[in-house]
Structure formats: C-alpha cells, structure tokens
C-alpha cells in the first residue's frame, strides 16, 4: 500500500492539478490532504493560480480516495463545498504495525506532540517546509506545500510506503528528503 500526501494547497488550482497528475502516476492507494485546501490565509500571499472553485472541482472528482484533516485556513463553508470529510483536526491510520497520526500542525505540532508510541509517524503540514526524519523513537513527516513553499524549498509532495517516507519536488519528482522506516516487531 502507498499513500500520496499533500498539504497547504491554499486555493492554487494549477499547483493542485500538477500534484494530482503526480498522484495519478504514483500508483498510490489514497490521497492524504493535511489541511489548508481552499483559502490562502491572511499571512500568505495570494497564489498566482488562486481559484478555489477549481480546487473544489478537482478534489471532489477524487473524493472517494481522499483522507483529509482540517487546517487553520479551512472553514465550515469549505466543508459545504467539498464532498469528503475535512472537519476533523486529526486522523489516525494503523500502518504496518505503527500509527500514522495525521494533522495540519497548528494544534498538534513538533513542539506539542500527541500521544505516540515508538515507531509511529507524526504527519503534519502548516509550516510549508518538508521533513522526513526520525526524531528519537518517532518519525516526523511533512510533505511541504504544493503552492506556497518556504525556506527556499520547491513545491513538494510526500509518499508513504510500508518502509519509507519520501518528500519529492513537485516539478521534477526529485527526492528532497527520505527516511527509512524501521520494521515494527510485534
């Protein structure tokens, strides 16, 4: 099983279209969205390809494959337009003997982690900076942003498999960060 992970779309329709092309070519089983789907937010510049209604149409076309969590820029109005649930501030997925904890990153963060066991993966967005690394006994995973990347990183997305976390550049598919997942022994 493979998961394709994006975050911080912020209404950028062309960026999402490019990410969805990568998703379709990846062979991933699900599309994980870690929040901030339609609105650019008051602290972000307006994306050059800002078209929230086009983002709605693109996401609704894949609603059966999406697992999403709510970001700090997502609202009840957004939920009324989207055909998949996004109101939860977090979600948890059992994953090959470990837990994937999905959140946007504004409530739970690397400074305020939820309860996790050794080997679990904390998946978050919000900061627009990619991460795929082990920290102590847990893993931190941030796919970056497909629309408004920060700290000189390119727009990016993530891939999660049973044995690895990868962050890839949206334009080239180049691996920006990668971390092997140590097999869980039960």
TrEMBL record:
Residues 1-163 form the Calcineurin-like phosphoesterase domain. InterPro entries: Calcineurin-like_PHP_lpxH (IPR024654), Metallo-depent_PP-like (IPR029052), MPP_YfcE (IPR041802), Phosphodiesterase_MJ0936/Vps29 (IPR000979). It holds the Pfam family Metallophos_2. SUPFAM superfamilies: Metallo-dependent phosphatases. GO terms for molecular function: hydrolase activity; metal ion binding. Its EC number is 3.1.4.-. Keywords: Metal-binding. It is an enzyme of class 3 (hydrolase). Its cofactor is a divalent metal cation. Belongs to the metallophosphoesterase superfamily. YfcE family. This is Phosphoesterase. It comes from Motilimonas pumila.
